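Budget justification aside, the reviewers requested a transparent look at the raw inputs and outputs of the sequence design task funded under Objective 1. We therefore reproduce one unedited record. The lines immediately below are the structure tokens for a 130-residue chain.
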């Protein structure tokens, strides 16, 4: 599945108990349609995203960046601290493509494909000029 949207805040890297690292960020996907009365309705869907392939990508996943994600979506439900039922959408990204960002346009290559988290590949991403 592919989704296109803008980051709502800068990405964060979390380290789990098993020493694996994940990049977490939130994406807002906008959609619009006309209702029966002909009025244009704007709708925004938010996804909590996770990217496990390479944590160095977090440096360029900044608030407002327009990205296209390839991956899978899942839904979750939980009871909040206030006792109310809550729900949300998760997106497990396997590929990230940048559509707009000053940093990605300077690099000349706006696509970061799914990468293995080998040390060599992490070093290659760390050497990118953005």
């Amino acid at each position: 599945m592919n989704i296109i949207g803008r980051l709502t805040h800068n990405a964060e890297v979390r380290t789990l108990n098993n020493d694996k690292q994940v990049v977490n960020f939130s994406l807002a996907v906008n959609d619009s349609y006309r209702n029966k009365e002909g009025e244009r309705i704007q709708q925004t869907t938010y996804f909590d995203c996770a990217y496990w392939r390479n944590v160095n990508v977090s440096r360029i996943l900044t608030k407002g960046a327009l990205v296209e994600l390839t991956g899978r979506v899942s839904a979750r439900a939980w009871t909040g601290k206030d006792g109310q039922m809550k729900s949300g959408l998760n997106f497990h990204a396997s590929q990230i493509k940048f559509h707009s960002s000053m940093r990605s346009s300077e690099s000349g290559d706006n696509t970061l494909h799914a990468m293995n988290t080998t040390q060599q590949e992490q070093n290659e991403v760390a050497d990118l000029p953005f």
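The domain at 2-30+42-122 is CATH 2.40.50.140 (OB fold (Dihydrolipoamide Acetyltransferase, E2P)). Residues 102-130 have pLDDT under 50 and may be disordered. Computational costs for records of this kind are itemized in the attached budget.
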